[in-house]
């Protein structure tokens, strides 16, 4: 053993303080986004450079988030979890099941032909589309 008190399968608590760019990570999963292993859990898909999670250093890509501030994430849709994160406050306690990096890569490969930059562009376009819808709705309601 390496002297660690926790085995790789023991959940850990990680408390993050929300920074100027949020908590600094992205998630995937939920009952509406099951993976190839038919797992509906919520996983960390990306740690954002210089974000709160990266600066803390304990949360890693592939970690499974079991709860947020004591709210268990079992059987929740992705959007529900995103809303819980948005309302979680400035200090967020995560109950996390650590997952080895090689295990994450093996079970959640990137879609064929997709690169991190392509995913970033897609995310940007989706956000831009959502903003355009909001602007149109606001314009219509003011007339």
TrEMBL record:
One of its GO terms (cellular component) is mitochondrial outer membrane. Pfam families: PDZ. Keywords: Membrane, Mitochondrion, Mitochondrion outer membrane, Transmembrane, Transmembrane helix. Residues 13-100 form the PDZ domain. The keyword Mitochondrion applies. It is found in: Mitochondrion outer membrane. InterPro entries: PDZ, PDZ_sf, Synaptic_Scaffolding_LAP-MAGUK. This is Synaptojanin-2-binding protein. It comes from Oryzias latipes (Japanese rice fish). The lineage of its organism: Eukaryota, Metazoa, Chordata, Craniata, Vertebrata.
């Amino acid at each position: 053993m390496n002297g660690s008190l926790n085995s790789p399968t023991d959940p850990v608590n990680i408390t993050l303080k929300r920074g100027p760019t949020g908590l600094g990570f992205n998630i995937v999963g939920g009952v509406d986004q099951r993976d190839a292993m038919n797992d509906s859990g919520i996983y960390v898909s990306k740690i954002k450079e210089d974000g709160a999670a990266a600066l803390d250093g304990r949360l890693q890509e592939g970690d499974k988030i079991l709860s947020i501030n004591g709210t268990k994430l079992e059987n929740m849709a992705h959007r529900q979890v995103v809303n819980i994160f948005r309302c979680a406050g400035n200090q967020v306690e995560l109950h996390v099941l650590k997952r080895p990096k090689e295990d994450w890569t093996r079970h959640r490969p990137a879609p064929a032909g997709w690169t991190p930059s392509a995913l970033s562009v897609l995310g940007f376009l989706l956000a831009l589309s959502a903003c355009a819808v909001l602007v149109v709705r606001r314009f219509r309601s003011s007339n």
